[in-house]
């Protein structure tokens, strides 16, 4: 086990060394245009100011990858479960993905720009099943009152994103899985970009503690779900062809997981 962990650690270390080296000594674009700076460029620019070491930067990148991967997995599992319980949405999503991605061996991030229903489906999944239901802890910076209750300064505050996403005073049909709500023109009523500006929809948090792997995680979800819809039809084991759904019981913790693992049968269309 120790040898396996050491081998895995070396693979991670080699990967991040290569990525950091590419950012320290970037190759010039053939078009002559300057490449846009990304998150790693930002971390490298802060090395001297904040005393960051290369190992510090690697540790931050590991956190981003792990958070993005777990978020993607949990959301994808819930999304597939909701689609099995809402076959009309499954059919509509497959029609969009297959019409846009026809004749492709694999759908990539570059193919997703016109798949609005795919993005809406993922956002609806995040609304109903935020992977971190209580987000990261925040602290109150000053005394304040909420509904008559005094919240002293420096109080640890947990925000229930799960409850916010199902609040009937904020959402029409909150218990229904309805991706179309994110396709409607709501005059900016809902922050569909998930940047933490609308406190009714906070799947990735808000403020200074918003998830740094948000873009990575969402892009991963899009590509994974698009390919699952593009390449396969799906059904429930031992219930193929019956239109049966799946149990949606949840297990609460630091992350929101299904009580039972999702098992589905893929079929080539």
Keywords:
mainly alpha; 43% helix; iron ion binding; iron; transmembrane
Taken as a percent bin, the fraction of beta residues is 5-15%
Kindly, what is the distance between the CA atoms of the first and last residues, rounded to a whole number of angstroms?
A: 41 Å
Rounded to the nearest angstrom, the radius of gyration is 21 Å
Q: Share of helix among residues?
A: 40-55%
Provide the succession of SSEs: HHHHHHEEEEHHEEEE
Shape: globular
- Tell me, rounded to a whole number, the average pLDDT: 86
| Oligomer class | single chain
Trace the largest sheet across and list its strands.
1-4
Total number of helices: 8
Specify the structural class: mainly alpha
**Main sheet makeup:** 2 strands, antiparallel
Low-confidence segments: none
Number of strands: 8
Please characterize this protein's 3D structure:
The chain is mostly helical and 269 residues long. The protein contains eight helices and eight strands. The protein has a two-stranded antiparallel sheet with strand order 1-4. The radius of gyration is 21 Å and the shape is globular. The mean pLDDT is 86. Its main location: membrane. GO terms for molecular function: heme binding; iron ion binding; monooxygenase activity; oxidoreductase activity, acting on paired donors, with incorporation or reduction of molecular oxygen. It is found in: Membrane. This is Cytochrome P450. Belongs to the cytochrome P450 family.
């Amino acid at each position: 086990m120790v040898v396996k962990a050491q081998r895995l650690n070396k693979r991670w270390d080699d990967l991040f060394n290569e990525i950091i080296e590419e950012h320290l000594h970037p190759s010039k674009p053939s078009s002559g245009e300057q490449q846009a700076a990304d998150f790693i460029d930002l971390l490298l620019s802060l090395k001297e100011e904040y005393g960051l070491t290369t190992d510090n930067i690697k540790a931050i990148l590991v956190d981003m990858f792990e958070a993005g991967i777990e978020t993607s997995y949990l959301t994808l599992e819930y999304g597939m479960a909701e689609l099995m319980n809402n076959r009309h949405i499954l059919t509509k999503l497959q029609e969009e993905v297959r019409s846009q991605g026809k004749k492709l061996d694999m759908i990539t991030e570059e193919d997703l720009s016109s798949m609005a229903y795919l993005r809406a489906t993922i956002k609806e999944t995040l609304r109903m099943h935020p992977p971190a239901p209580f987000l990261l802890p925040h602290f109150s910076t000053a005394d304040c009152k909420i509904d008559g209750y005094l919240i002293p300064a420096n109080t640890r505050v947990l925000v229930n994103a799960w409850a916010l996403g199902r609040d009937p005073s904020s959402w029409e049909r909150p218990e229904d899985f309805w991706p179309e709500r994110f396709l409607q023109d709501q005059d900016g009523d809902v922050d569909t970009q998930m940047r933490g500006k609308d406190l009714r929809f906070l799947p990735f948090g808000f403020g200074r503690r918003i998830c740094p792997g948000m873009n990575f995680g969402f892009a991963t979800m899009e590509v994974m779900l698009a390919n699952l819809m593009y390449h396969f039809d799906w059904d429930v084991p031992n219930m193929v062809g019956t239109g049966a759904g799946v149990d949606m019981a949840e297990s609460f913790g630091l992350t929101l997981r299904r009580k039972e693992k999702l098992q589905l049968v893929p079929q080539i269309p």
